[in-house]
Structure formats: C-alpha cells, structure tokens
Amino acid sequence: MDKKSVKEIKEAIENLELSRYMEYIDLLRSDDRKSVQNLALKLAKKLDKIRAEDERLEKINIYENEGYNKGYLYIGGIDEAGRGPLAGPVVASIVVFGKDTKIEGIDDSKKLSESKREELFEIIKEKALDYGIGIVNNEEIDRINILNATYLAMQKAINSLEKTPDYLLVDAAHIPGIDIDQNSIIKGDSKSISIAAASIIAKVTRDNIMYQYDRMYPEYGFKSHKGYGTKEHYEAIDKNGIIPIHRKSFLKKYFK
C-alpha cells in the first residue's frame, strides 16, 4: 500500500467491495502518511454507516416478519397523504413486497427530500409484488368528512390490487368495512418497510397532482405548499377567493 499514491488509494477504495472494507481499513491505518490514515477513518465511518443502515432495514421488516410467522402470505402496508391540506385530494397507497425485501434509504416520506422520494418511488414500483393507489377528491371530502374520505381512499387502493392481501399493516389507523386482518402501527411509516413505501407512493402521487393544479391556478402557489394552510395560501385565498379544488369544510369562515 505504501507504494501507491494517495490518489491511487482513493480510486481503489471508491470501488471497493464491502467484504474488503476491514482489510483496507487495517492496511490504511498502518500507513505512515497522515492523509492515508485519514482515508482509513473515512472508510471506517462509511462502514459504520452501511452497518447502521443494514440494521435499520432489518428492524423495519419486523412487522412483516411477524405476519409471515403467523401464517400470512401476502402482506400489504398502507399509508395516506393529504389529510390536512385546505385543497386537493387525499391519496392512499398500499404496497406489497416479497419476504425480506430491502431497499436502501427507504423511510417515512416526511423524512426524505423530494428528490429522494422520487428516486425511491421508481424503485418501489419495480421491487413491489403489487401496489395500489386510491384518490378521493375535495368534493367527496366535503361530503363524507376527511376521516371517512381517508378510509375510502385506502379501500380504493386495496381494491386496485391484482390480488387481495391476507394481512394489512396500517399507519395509525384501522380501516372499517374490509374483511382483512389488520395491524394498526403508530408511526408505522418509520417502522415498517411496506408502510414506508406506501407513504412515499402516496406522497409523490399527491404532490404530482398538486403540481398540475399549480399550473392551472398559479396564483395560489400550490407548487410550494401543496395545498396546506400556509400564510401564502391564506393570502392567496383572501385575494383570489375559493376555487373548485378547495375543501369547503376546511374553510367554513369564508362561507359565513
């Protein structure tokens, strides 16, 4: 190793197989050059990060594995996006993975950047055995209320699957009116890989809908706030009024 330049060593460890990390860390640490020893430190930190992610990915399969151990064969995770906004639909998604599926970086959609969500959106669709999306618009939300609209979106997502799951993992909810065993998990979008995946599918789908609305109604700023009750959004309503995609039941003060 001492015959190689620092540049050559950097290039070597960039494409290093994980199985050889410890070997190289030991070699680099024994080098007299401080810069090479610093590379050993960076490689060790990278290995720690990889191991931590592997451990996290094991943990977020726990609820799925519990289901398999109980005899369930086709497990779907469900989450929604858009319960709180003043405008636009509520969107639910369900994702079914094969046993022991791992996707690096997958997590609660709220913890991820938009670019990471979009990247994972495509990976999830590729790796899923099946996935479904349910959308309930603002008019239906006003008619049946947001809670029932959320349940309806979840039911629609389930019904859009090619095969009905025999077990559901649901983020902090129990869906009424369906004859499928369910497990309601508080903060499930950070504890279950299939719920995390569903949160990403639902969030990206809803955001794309709101981008379309932004092009239709640019004066409301939907691109930035996605319909939530920000200062910018309320100022746009005060200036321009209510539009067809607003949830009137969320904006009752404007109808007195």
UniProtKB/TrEMBL annotation:
| Entry superkingdom | Bacteria
Q: What is its EC number?
A: 3.1.26.4
Gene3D superfamilies per record: Ribonuclease H-like superfamily/Ribonuclease H (3.30.420.10)
Residue ranges annotated for the RNase H type-2 domain, each copy included: 73-256
Annotated a divalent metal cation binding sites: 79-80, 171
Its recorded reaction(s) are:
Endonucleolytic cleavage to 5'-phosphomonoester
Q: Which locations, inside or outside the cell, does it occupy?
A: Cytoplasm
Q: What does the record's cofactor remark say about binding?
A: Manganese or magnesium. Binds 1 divalent metal ion per monomer in the absence of substrate. May bind a second metal ion after substrate binding.
GO molecular function terms noted in the UniProt entry: RNA-DNA hybrid ribonuclease activity
Could you confirm whether the keyword Nuclease appears in this record?
Answer: yes
- Read off the InterPro entries from this record: RNase_HII (IPR022898), RNase_HII/HIII (IPR001352), RNase_HII/HIII_dom (IPR024567), RNaseH-like_sf (IPR012337), RNaseH_sf (IPR036397)
Q: What class of enzyme is it?
A: hydrolase
What's the short name of a Pfam family annotated to this entry?
RNase_HII
So which cofactors does this thing need?
Mn(2+); Mg(2+)
The yes or no answer to whether the keyword Hydrolase is present is yes
Q: Which UniProt keywords apply?
A: Cytoplasm, Endonuclease, Hydrolase, Manganese, Metal-binding, Nuclease
PROSITE patterns in the record: RNASE_H_2
Q: Which CDD domains match?
A: RNase_HII_bacteria_HII_like
Q: Which family does it belong to?
A: Belongs to the RNase HII family.
Function text: Endonuclease that specifically degrades the RNA of RNA-DNA hybrids.
Q: Please identify the protein, giving its name as recorded.
A: Ribonuclease HII
